[in-house]
Every structure is written in C-alpha cells, then in structure tokens.
Write a structure and sequence with these properties.
By secondary structure, the protein is an alpha+beta fold. It has 2 domains: about 1-10 and about 110-370, Deoxyribonuclease I, Chain A (4-Layer Sandwich), CATH 3.60.10.10; about 25-105, no CATH class. Helices cover about 25% and strands about 25% of the residues. The chain has a 6-stranded mixed sheet. Strands 11-14-15-16-18-17 form a 6-stranded mixed sheet. A hairpin with a 5-residue loop joins strand 14 (about 205-210) and strand 15 (about 215-225).
Amino acid sequence: MRLASFNVENMFDRVKAMNLDTWAEGRATLEAHQELNTLFNEGVYTPAIQARILKLLADHGLLRRDESEFFILRKLRGKLLNRRPGGEVTVVAKGRPSWIGWVELKTEAVRETATENTARVIAWVNADVLGVVEAEDRTTLRLFNQSVLPAVTAAAYEHVMLIDGNDSRGIDVGMLSRGDYPILSIRSHVADRDDKGLVFSRDCAEFEIGLQSGGKLWVLVNHFKSKGYGGQTANDAKRKRQATRVRALYDAHVAAGHDYVAIIGDLNDTPDRDPLAPLLSAGSDLLDISAIAGFQDGGRPGTHGTCTAASKLDYILLSPKLFESVSAARIERLGMWGGKNGTLWPHFDEVKAAEDAASDHAALWVDLAI
C-alpha cells in the first residue's frame, strides 16, 4: 500500500492574508486577528485594552467600517464601538459580557488552475491512504474528491474524513483512503491540554485504517504551529509541546501492541531543531522515510518553498515494524513552481506560473508491504 502526506494549502477558498506572495506580507494581519480576538475575550476592557483595540482597528481599516481588505468585524449582539460621524471613535463595550462578536479573516477563491493542479498531484501520487493538511472542512474535501479529482481523470476516494480543528482560518487535517483501506475510527485531540493550556493549533487526528491483511494501521495527521507569525521563542515552545504530546500518543500505541504507526503532516520545523526533539532525537524509535536507502529527494532535502534543508517541514515518520516494510519513498514536487523562474525542478505543464502551483509544499509518499 502507498501512504502519502500533502499540505494542499486549501482547495477552493483561502484566507486572503495567507494567499500573498510571502508569509511576511500577511504576518501583521494574522497577528492582529489573533490579538484582537484575544482582547475581545477579556472580561473587562480597561483603558489600556480599549486603546489597543482602537489602534489595531485603525491600523487594519476597521475603525470606521466593519469591513476592510482582509477583515470583517462581526457583531451579533450588543455594541462594541461608538462611531461619531466625522468625530471620535470610542469603545463603549465594558468587556466580553457586553457584546457578542469577533473579527473574521476574509477569504478568496483559490485560482482554478491551482485547484486542478492539487488534484493532479494527488492523482500522480496515487496513494491508498492520503493525509491532507490545510483543507477547509469535510464538505469542501468531499466536494473536491467528488468533482475535481474526476475532472483530471483521477479516481475519487471512497473514504473522506475531516474534523474541524482549533484554527479559525479553515486549515484542518483530514484523510482520504481507498475502498480497500477503510477508516475504522478517528480520534480527535482538539481539546488536549497541558499545564500551559491548549496543545494543538489545529489537531492531531488519529485515523485507524483497516488493512487487507486484517491488520490495522494508525496514522496520526498533524499540522504544528507555524513560523509564519508570532515570536520565535513562543512558536518553538508551542511546537515542542505539540511534539511532546504526539510522542505520548505514539508511545501509547506502542504500549498497546500496535506495530504499524505513522506520524505524518506539516511539523513546521527542521529535524535538527529542539522543538521536534521528542520525535526525532537520537535514540528515538521513530524513523523518517528520508533515511530509507534509495530515498528520492531530487537532490533537495526540503519540502517547502525552494526545498533547501532549512525548509524541510513535512514528514512521514514510521514505527520500526512499519519502517521494515518500506520498499520505496519519494518527495513529489510536480505541483510546485520551483524558485523565481520555476526552474529548480520539473513540474506539470499546467504549472505555468507561481500562481498555478498546487501548493508551496511538496507531497511525500512511501510504499509499505503490509
């Protein structure tokens, strides 16, 4: 069977601030979104909080109207602001109990060619079990499977599953599998907490896959905290907590006698850095498919952007018994543009510009004799 992982970067609609040329361009917008909604949840709006709310609203075009280039200010009940025509704008809500509302990130349609190229990557990889990262929701994933895959002459998957995670931007983790590999169960960890609070930025979704041999394959699909916005120290600490929790889930499977366990997805860090140490430190029994003899990486070890070693973000990690069954593995970049001029590696003819790319991430696949 073939197991694969692919960060599809949304299929039909994507947050506008995440659809710019670089992460840096949208960083301030994403940080403001997080900070505003955090401030809105305060029980009491002190003068300092009121001043900060007004500053963020002004900086992002929401001081005098409820919609800007990247944001929508949603107000369901109560009143947040007093906007005097031509005059001062003040915060009139006393705190969270005074009103119900939030600031929402606007989305825009993903270019049609890019969506079709996402389908072409999935068709080319032709995995039996495919973990997807940054899918909008199950309805969208199901429609993509039923409508777009057949449009590029690819067979739709029989099993489609996704549970909405903790990220309000519609970047969830899910699973597609063939009829011979049914999804027997799913465990979500959106509510997992440690002494610092909520662990997962999105989810660590555990899928139990039935095998033709009668055995079971457990696939833990992840999308760790990104480096795209926020401070490095806090981001690193968040990823370390996530890796620690995933390690505990993996160890629980091993203790239960599960031989076939895979951890896949976008871990948003390189293997040499401390945040991923719980999974990849020396002596860990988890094995990266890049360690397989004959692993095909096209001369570039990375999976994102220009695919240098510093941009290895996506992984398929295998338990020892699963690693023993590997016959082949590869990084697949045919849906990526490849540098400023698109010349760093071969890609589909339909990828004629960066805007046509299926994703900024490569897909990964591994063949397993199980």
